[in-house]
Amino acid sequence: MSVYTPVSESQLAEWLRNYSVGSLAALEPVAAGIENTNYFVTTSQGRYVLTLFERLPAAELPFYLGLMAHLARHGIPCPAPMADLSDEYLSRLNGKPAALVTRLSGSSIERPGAHECAELGALLGRMHLAGRSYHEYLDNPRGPKWWRAAAREVRPFLDAEAQALLDEELRLQSLYRFPDLPRGPVHADLFRDNALFEGERISGVIDFYFAGVDCLLFDLAVCANDWCLVDPERDRGLDPARAGALLAAYAALRPFSALERGAWPVMLRAAALRFWLSRLHDFHLPRPGMLVHAHDPAHFRDILTLRVGTSDVPWVD
């Protein structure tokens, strides 16, 4: 989440007249992430998050907002989009598509342990089961088609070793698209900063704006590559205790197939490739904006290199 489009209190107060959420009390820009403009909004009736969509295609936005509304109705602790007086989730503010969603309580944790990873696994299991009755479709927007396009754009910035790693991984992933794996709506970006905790329980999952339909196992691989590292700074191998807790808690709700077990090492590589490419793209081809934070691409290059170097990755028996 970043701030590219400024919004004044007077502009927002006028815009909020189209909603039944009370009068504006406070407006605070959110300086994290890199995709959209976000503000915390407090009104006389509650706390919300205002998002102005900077570059997501307009045709994709109903999928994201509809998915969040669907999951919230099914008891998943995610932001619930607020409909305006015309019963629409999406409107326009300062020339940008905009949405208002509920703001959840809690805070993210920097160093999750096995208990927190189990909480995450159980939540993902519930989310994937609830998603089965969501019938809108959007192919994962950061899937293989995007990988190939992004690779062409960032390749000139890479040294020969990095180019070789990228080319070989794209070649391997093209052989493993796993059409027989269970598929459905996935969050696809559930890093530690997109999960909120109150005490020992998850109180919310946020930022669904990379969601799409893909292999359900991909969601777990994204999480494992962020939540289950031995040490994010020094050792980016997978910690067996935390990875096992994540997978076991998930499997208690939706058991894995034999095909999913076999696909796990390659799916971990796919998740690392996706985020290496996106960080390379944001680092080398940034957009002008206010309060913009680009992450270091070397982190996911290291993770990918480790996943390529071993097929012995933690799994649940």
Question: Can you describe this structure?
Answer:
The chain is α+β, with helices and mostly antiparallel strands. It folds into two domains: 9-102, Phosphorylase Kinase, domain 1; 114-309, Aminoglycoside 3'-phosphotransferase, Chain: A, domain 2, CATH 3.90.1200.10. 40% of the residues lie in helices and 17% in strands. The protein has nine helices and eleven strands. The strands form four sheets. It has a five-stranded antiparallel β-sheet with strand order 1-2-3-5-4, covered by helices on one side. Helix 4 runs antiparallel to helix 5. The mean pLDDT is 94.
Which secondary structure elements does this structure contain, and how are they paired or packed?
Elements: H1 9-15, E1 24-29, E2 37-43, E3 47-52, H2 61-73, E4 91-93, E5 96-102, H3 114-131, H4 144-154, H5 160-174, E6 183-186, E7 195-198, E8 201-205, E9 212-215, H6 216-227, E10 229-231, E11 235-238, H7 240-251, H8 258-284, H9 298-309
Antiparallel strand pairs: 1-2, 2-3, 3-5, 4-5, 6-9, 7-8, 10-11
Keywords summarizing the entry:
alpha+beta, 317 residues, Phosphorylase Kinase, domain 1, two-stranded antiparallel sheet, Aminoglycoside 3'-phosphotransferase, Chain: A, domain 2, 5-stranded antiparallel beta sheet
CATH fold-type name of the largest domain: Aminoglycoside 3'-phosphotransferase, Chain: A, domain 2
Q: What value does the average pLDDT take?
A: 94
Q: Report the structural category.
A: alpha+beta
Which descriptor suits the 3D outline?
Answer: globular
Subunit arrangement of the protein? single chain
The CATH H-level homologous superfamily of the largest domain: Aminoglycoside phosphotransferase (APH), C-terminal lobe
The major β-sheet equals: 5 strands, antiparallel
Termini, distance in Å?
A: 38 Å
By CATH, the architecture of the largest domain is named Alpha-Beta Complex
Q: Rg from C-alpha positions?
A: 20 Å
